[in-house]
What does this fold into?
Amino acid sequence: MSSFDCTKSCKKTRQTRDSDYCTGTYEIIDGKIVYGCDAVMSSLNQRDNNFLTCNFYDLNILDNCNSCPLYCKENKNPNIKRAEDAMKNVSKMLSSLGPLASMAGVDQSELKKATEKMKSSEINTNTSIEIEDTIKLTNYAKNILSSVMSGRSVDIVEFKRIKEEIERKYKK
It folds into this structure.
């Protein structure tokens, strides 16, 4: 396969062309044009990828950044900011549950997996609602575990009812 120069006729956004990810080349594979930057950008995180491929930013329509539902470094949507902050809070809370969770039979590797999943989850305008529920549940679990660890009694029947309600609500 041979590569061709696409610097004069590239159809990618300005921010992609001006980035370090631009190789200035393309190949024709199975009758399709495959730009060199696509292979390099495939490993990017969601935030950077959304920015580099945004046509609104490329066309300098920056007002759209105030209501855009995509997670991006130029996004000005307050819902995205809330979701991002909430995601950081949940990661911190999951990390702080470590010692208490082990007493409840939760393996540390499970907490690490949950924290990594939260960090790599896609952030959008619906995320903040889901995260707020997660924060409430995590705080609740942390408080119950702290109570048990400090010798207070926990109403097992109430705990079981809440557990079943949570499972019913989040079962997919």
Summary: The first strand starts at residue 4 and ends at 5.
